[in-house]
Amino acid sequence: MTSVDGSPRELILRVATSLFAALGYDSTSASQIAEAVGLSVESLGEEFGSKRELYLEIMEREYRAERASLVKALEGISAVTPEQTALVVHRVVDHYLDFCVAHPEFPSLWMHRWLADASDVTELERRYIQPQIDLVSSVITPAMDAGYVDAGVDTKYAFWSVVWCVHGFCQGGVLDREGNRQDSGDPAVLRRFRAYLHRMIHRVAALPEPSPMP
């Protein structure tokens, strides 16, 4: 069995990502992954070494994809006025929401870790989360130093509030009046949640309405 691009390795990565995202690292066995891709456990081991090494490669790949997306979203922008600061914050929020909706395995993998999944695999937060925080901070900090953001804002908790909300929305969604879970990718649902996130961060940071970059 091969993936769309003809690579058995790529197929293993895709299948293992889906299983880790759905079941968690601890609840996914090497034999489950091997069976799902039509290989023996021995062949899987020859390709990746161990389940741990496979997981580490998947987390590295997920990080690189999100990092590239964030860098592209922030390319060429700066917060040189209060209004542009608001636009930068909007862009960061929109980037993260759109990436997680398009790649639901990403928030799922990290939410499993929040529940102590793969607790023996340490350093992933320092290696993959902190660089993203630092990148966003490098764009926002000058605006804070200039007084464009309310000095009383706890930026750490503002950042994590967005992450918590986005992950919960992507994984848990919201219920309609009949109690049915709405699809987070539904345009109307997504539009309403995006507007909520913008309003939430505006109120937390006391931001003005955004204006276009020059």
From TrEMBL:
Organism superkingdom: Bacteria
Keywords per UniProt: DNA-binding
Organism of provenance: Streptosporangium vulgare
Residues in HTH tetR-type domain copies: 6-66
Protein's name according to its UniProt entry: TetR/AcrR family transcriptional regulator
Family matches, as InterPro entries: Homeodomain-like_sf (IPR009057), HTH-type_TetR-like_transc_reg (IPR050109), HTH_TetR (IPR001647), Tet_transcr_reg_TetR-rel_C_sf (IPR036271)
DNA-binding region: 29-48
A Pfam family hit: TetR_N
